[in-house]
Amino acid sequence: MNLSVDRLSKQYKNKIAVDRISFNLTDGVTGLLGANGAGKTTLMRMMSGILNPTSGSVTADGIPVQTEEYRALLGYLPQDFGYYPEFTAREFVQYIAALKGIEKKKAKNKTEELLETVGLSDVANKKIKTFSGGMKQRVGIAQALVNDPKILILDEPTAGLDPKERVRFRNLIAEIGKTSIVLFSTHIVSDIEHIAGNLLMIRDGQLIYEGKWDNQKGDLEQFYMEEFG
């Protein structure tokens, strides 16, 4: 699958949040790096069909982002995902599966599998409002994966996770990236250093670097700091 972002822009009154960004993604993990306010979240919201661009387009094998067909391919974890506090973890993941049109038995099995994957099986019947920030984030990760997405967009997905959880999550993402397109936004360089084969760097709404990290020499954090001055 090819995910194409073509001259994508978003302007708010006098501010250009994303400025004519173009790139193509195929299966594998791509790290999206940039300081807070660089335009990462705006870009990902447009790629997820939540925000309409001022100009430009997003397509997956020619399928436009605004279509049901595209949404069926998509898994998305926003920086602050919305949840129903009275729902249990199990109820919430099953609810998202239902919204995505997944058959009931399959949704139930997938929910159990994902709760095990993210380490929440033992608290599956507890209400999300009682969870720590890291546990809520793990619920968010599970709901993003419930439809086995071919395109997975993750906005600061390791926020609130402890070091052990971050390692487990990175391993999971590396595995998903073998058969799906994964775009992983972060400002924590170590989270993507060992799993992202490709890098995108954004500054002030503009793409300032696109390439394979394998081609670079040395330390990613040093390279990142050099690019961002």
From TrEMBL:
Database matches in InterPro entries: AAA+_ATPase (IPR003593), ABC_transporter-like_ATP-bd (IPR003439), ABC_transporter-like_CS (IPR017871), P-loop_NTPase (IPR027417)
Family of this protein: Belongs to the ABC transporter superfamily.
Keyword ATP-binding (UniProt): yes
Gene3D superfamilies: P-loop containing nucleotide triphosphate hydrolases (3.40.50.300)
Gene Ontology molecular function: any one: ATP hydrolysis activity
Ranges of residues in domain ABC transporter: 3-229
Record's keyword terms, sorted: ATP-binding, Nucleotide-binding, Transport
Protein name: ABC-2 type transport system ATP-binding protein
Translocase as UniProt keyword: no
Matching CDD domains: ABC_drug_resistance_like (cd03264)
